[in-house]
Amino acid sequence: MLGSTSKILEDSAKGGFYLTVGNLISGLVSALSLIIIARVLGPAEYGIYTISTIIPSLLILFVDPGISQALIKYSANLRMKREDKRLRKLLISGLSVKSALAFVLFLVCLAFADQFANHILNRSEISELVRLTSVLIILQTFLTTVNSIFIGLDKMEYVAFTNVVQSSSKAVLSPLLVLLGFGVVGAITGYLVSFALACLIGAILFTFKIYRSLNRPGTDPADFSENLKMLLAYGLPLYVSVLIGGFTVQFRGILLSNFTLDYDVGNFQAAMNLNMIVASVAEPIATVLVPAFSKLEDREGTLREFFKTSVKYSSLVVLPIAVLLISFSNEIVEIVYGEGYGLASSILAIYMTIYLFSGLGMLVLGSFFNGLGQTRINLMVRVANSAVLLATAPLLTYHFKTYGMVVALLLSSTAGTLYGFYRARKSFRISLNWGKLAKIYISSITSALPLFAIKAVPLPSILSVTLGAIAYLAIYLLMVPATKALTMLELKELKAILGNVEILRILAYPLIFCEEKIMAHVN
Predict the structure, then answer these.
(1) How far apart are CA 309 and CA 287, in angstroms?
(2) What's the pLDDT tens digit per position in 436-495?
(3) What does the alpha-carbon distance between residue 288 and residue 309 come to, in Å, rounded to a whole number?
(4) Alpha-carbon distance 197 to 56, whole Å?
(5) Residues in Cβ contact with 57 at an 8 Å cutoff, skipping those fewer than 6 apart
(6) Comparing 93 with 137, which gets the higher pLDDT?
(7) Which of 27, 387, 422, 442 has the most CB atoms around its CB within 10 Å?
(8) For residues 119 and 72, what is the distance between their CA atoms, to the nearest angstrom?
(9) Cα(160)–Cα(137) distance, integer angstroms
């Protein structure tokens, strides 16, 4: 397996590293700004801040008819084929269509802000905030589009850079404006300016590093309409999927807005913010796998092996992070938000159980289908997910408030993952190494058991979490070789892959060295 896919694994590891580092930095910086914003505004005003972005986020769903994902796939394909002229035209076609749609929906949000605030959000007093946040439609659309291009061309470091610029500028501006007394308006203004700066950086990188490096179009027969047709043919099924999924995300905000108090919404969003600790690792894994699977679509045997390997390694990384967050949810919420967010810790602990389905390919299935161009299957996965949420969320939220919403999210995610795995198994004969995955689960969960002894000691929360994380990592590094969740052969494979990426080699080799010594002793 190493010989046939090592280069793809190496590219994925390198790109995933850049995205992970970018996400971690931007996540940490964003967390700092959110701590200040949430603490100064308080749960109620933080709830208003969250609600004010629902309508623009909902309208953004109608901007992208699957073009972003199509740009990732075809950028990777055309780059592999060295069709620079076609690629140049394709990028301009995608950017032009999405920019035009974004401007139209921006005008719609401005014109109907009063109606949206009154009839959808049940908050007529925030109509001006909705108008203010409408600028997000233009800014976020442009940034996501150029980032999709960067991903398709294996320029993950550009994505990381724009994300860091956005989060860093937001971390400075939003808390500063809140502390200066501008309240929710200040927090939103800082958010908008941060996106504007990231868009400027993205435009510069795209123009001078991507667009100008491609050959000028000359004899390429494809015109604007042909490129658009190709993008839409791939993207429309995916667009419906994204539209349904995006609507359900905003639907949960609408339900919480109508059935709960601003205090509850603030606690729910505070817990969801902490999900970025796992997402900063999980999302890069899913992102880099799209072009990786795209490169393997004509090699069935290698494709199935790569899927199995991707699930194994993603579970090996993501599961322990989720378990650690569940174990210290109370302490983490107290450190981040203080004592005013009493509901957030239990919401976080319940929601983190969603990552227990990593072993069924939850983080890999979407990338697998998209990379192979099977966007219709992804659409059906999204339909299964959303159907369960739409059926369960209203009733559960009405009766059990935020806890009901979290349970509905877990049920919907379970349904989507199970259906996606069923389709992958049926259509592509995908299988998993169940024995290996069981050992990863055992290692992740049992490593958390000694943490209860640390939690029983009355320590400051930050000290308890620090000691717990160190203890968990040490025990996990012992459990993985002890249970043979990772064998010496697999460790050598990882070492060979990471060894070709200098910065990964520097960071990963100390852990690999420790594992080698432990494995040698265990064996």
Answers:
(1) 16
(2) 889 999 999 999 988 888 888 888 889 999 999 999 988 998 888 888 887 787 777 666
(3) 14
(4) 19
(5) 136, 246, 249, 250
(6) 137
(7) 27
(8) 37
(9) 21
Residue 409, CB-side half-sphere exposure with 13 Å CA sphere: 26
Residue 461 tokens, joined: 């929360």
Cβ neighbours around 180 below 10 Å, total: 9
Tokens, residue 54: 């629902």
Report residue 469 CA to chain centroid gap: 23
Cα angle 294, 297, 298 (rounded to 5 degrees) comes to 140
Q: Which amino acid is at 391?
A: A
Structure token digits, residue 194: 């941060």
In contact, 291 and 71? CB cutoff 8 Å: no
Domain coordinates in residue numbering, the chain: 2-432
End-to-end Cα distance, the chain? 24
Number of neighbours of residue 204 by Cβ within 10 angstroms: 10
DSSP state of 182: I
Helices 502-522, 488-499: axis angle to 10 degrees equals: 170
Is the whole-model pTM more than 0.90? no
Average pLDDT, the chain: 82
> Letter for the amino acid at 473?
L
> For the segment 36-57, what is each residue's pLDDT rounded down to a tens digit?
787 788 878 888 888 888 899 8
Contact 211, 196 (CB under 8 A): no
| CA dist., res. 406 & res. 479, Å (int) | 31
